[in-house]
């Protein structure tokens, strides 16, 4: 019997033996931790001596504490820091975790807080252009906040793969230049497009701009190739079909129109049969106008992954309460997992959970499949055309789509034989459920499965074919959509619901474990089909950034 039910959760303890930095490996025994200084003006000085850092500052107590340890990294980072702590948080790698305790106890005039990083969270990789939240990577690129990639856990995906030149990402948008530093040697223009004020540059950069080259920022799938085309032919999508026939694995459409064409729908089916996934935006009209009733295309076609925007920066609304001076009204902005950018308080009472302003919510409807960060997205078009760095100020969906597109590029790079029809399933299974976020509840059913998590999506692909750990389907509640997943590895479902019209077709070569808090109860329109197939074989091998990852 391979299909089993267990009352207790399956607990997997991951032993991490090797963690890679950009240039060298750090052993499991080394301690990684965050330190928070009391004052933003504190900037310690170090000298490099061989492989380690030596404190060269004048604080006697700090010097006495640090002399007992071997330090590899001690640098300022914005990662995981609250608003008031952005400029006084440090990332440290040392030979002993006792260093953190030592500093907090004996150098308390400088440091006020420390936090060890768990072994499982050391499985990351960061290129040398990873922005202000960079930890193990040297940030030689644009000095901008890339915390939206942190929220998506992209460095955890990069641990497995940074992309492949063999995986081509299609950009249907404004024009790019093939000799641009972020695209040279990996791009091709299939159909010329308009310059569109650098829109194509920005979208292509977010999806697949070159990383680890000490310039600008890394795209999500930064070692993937790019084919560029235009964004017309809405009735038959001929430019997209052309890309698909050329071997493009995923096509980004940061555009859309409110017209349905059956010929275009058939084109989508043709591309899916070719193994090509299309990602498109639900578009930008505010919810205050559309009321969840206005679909845009190609996003709303069947088999297209439709995306919209959500906020990501502040973990709790209390971290970013602002005031509108003219009216004396308090409001919030860019709160993590909220589907709107701004919101206010009933009776101006900031002790109450805020409500979202519908005008700050981009178009949502029942066709949306997933949301991703949208405000503060790097706009490479400004650097490419005008020579300066800039980020998006609002929450347009154009910058959201390439984050999803790049994530799919990583999935195909890791396992080139991944069935295109299973990509959407993996993205939804691994997304962060945001149904219980109170301000989102009036919009339930219109923001898809939740917030994109690139790290979990790529790890699920790894787990499906590495045969090391079970594939976990957990922490989601689905009442619709058709899901299909085929795994060589064992599959465990826990804290998971498939109800109402949800359809699940799950096949595993090994076991399927139905663990605690799992509900499989569809209605007459849904279906659950669980199957063990001992004849399943891998169609190809995992293409890992470093083959030794299989030994972790």
Automatic annotation (TrEMBL):
This is Peptidase S8/S53 domain-containing protein. PROSITE patterns: SUBTILASE. Belongs to the peptidase S8 family. Residues 196-439 form the Peptidase S8/S53 domain. It comes from Aequorivita aquimaris. One of its GO terms (biological process) is proteolysis. The active site is at 173 (charge relay system), 199 (charge relay system), 398 (charge relay system). The keyword Hydrolase applies. InterPro entries: Peptidase_S8/S53_dom, Peptidase_S8/S53_dom_sf, Peptidase_S8_subtilisin-like. The keyword ATP-binding does not apply. Keywords: Hydrolase, Protease, Serine protease. One of its GO terms (molecular function) is serine-type endopeptidase activity.
